[in-house]
Specification:
It is a single chain. The protein is α/β, with parallel strands linked by helices and 294 residues long. Strands 1-2-4-3-5-6-7-8 form an eight-stranded mixed beta sheet. Helix 2 crosses helix 12 and helix 4 crosses helix 9.
Length: 294
């Protein structure tokens, strides 16, 4: 079914030049639209690319970005299409779109050397698929609570797969459910207020909810086993970080992934949910730096 623009409640703003003039970060025009990004750290240092997850834009990687730039890496993070301040093109939000976005972004920024990739949640399967497709471009892979296995979706999310009806249902009751689901990914409630204040503005730009629905319908979020198997047949260094209290990408799948990628280095993070790097940066950041510096 062709993609179409549905008038979702709460989406009142447009990502136009006037709006972008007041936004932080940089923008680059790629084949499918403008991408919002930040590139910092040591010029000439090893390049690390951070890929965020399904619904929350690149601010979810703030502490990771800061720690890695301070450690001497050249760090690139960006908003996936449909999220944050990147464009919301009227296309199918499938895995190919996100692989193409990353490919175009590296080309546009003239990053030609091999990079390390860090993928969070859905960014994990995007990073793994990019690595699988372009193995010579990736020297190390970091997965944080990665997607690729059956997720615990609510009945509402499952209804979103129904064309037309999904849009109507999401328009009526979806925003609160979406926000509660995102905030529920945190184990420690101390971060929720700050997280909410930063999340809400990007939810008001037209095309956000359409992008989420299209991503769900594309069906790649829970289908990563074969990709992970192929990475496991390589000699690529892989680091796995997983919050033990994760109920979004259940922690039990960490055992599955360890079995699929024999060379993986695995660190469970006690007392953390789906975003352990955000909740426990004092534990996760040293693990990342140690792995990437080796």
């Amino acid at each position: 079914m062709p993609e179409f623009e549905f008038p979702f409640r709460g989406e009142t703003k447009h990502l136009n030049p006037e709006e972008r003039a007041h936004l932080p970060g940089e923008f680059i025009k790629l084949s499918k639209g403008l991408t919002h990004y930040e590139l910092g750290g040591s010029v000439g240092g090893p390049v690390v690319v951070l890929v965020h997850g399904f619904a929350v834009p690149m601010f979810v990687l703030d502490s990771t970005y800061q720690a890695l730039t301070q450690a001497g890496f050249r760090v690139l993070r960006y908003d996936l299409f449909g999220r944050g301040f990147s464009n919301r093109p009227l296309v199918k939000y499938d895995l190919n779109l996100f692989i193409r976005q990353l490919t175009d972004l590296l080309h546009g920024l003239e990053i030609t050397q091999p990079v390390s990739l860090l993928g969070l949640s859905m960014g994990g399967i995007v990073s793994a698929a990019f690595t699988d497709q372009y193995p010579g471009r990736v020297v190390k892979l970091v997965l944080i609570d990665p997607a690729g296995f059956p997720l615990r979706f609510s009945p509402l999310i499952k209804l979103l797969t129904l064309p037309g009806l999904g849009e109507v249902i999401f328009n009526l009751v979806g925003e609160n459910n979406l926000e509660n689901g995102i905030l529920g990914s945190m184990y420690d409630p101390v971060h929720i207020r700050e997280f909410t204040q930063r999340l809400k503005p990007q939810m008001g730009y037209k095309g956000y909810k359409r992008a989420l629905i299209s991503t769900i319908r594309a069906g790649f979020i829970d289908r990563g086993v074969e990709t992970y198997k192929r990475i496991g047949r390589s000699d690529l260094p892989v680091l796995l970080i997983w919050g033990t209290e994760d109920t979004t990408a259940p922690f039990k799948y960490s055992r599955t992934l360890v079995g699929l990628i024999p060379q993986i280095e695995f660190h469970p993070i006690p007392g953390a949910g789906h975003i352990p790097h955000y909740e426990k940066p004092e534990i996760v950041n040293p693990l990342l730096i140690d792995f990437l510096e080796r």
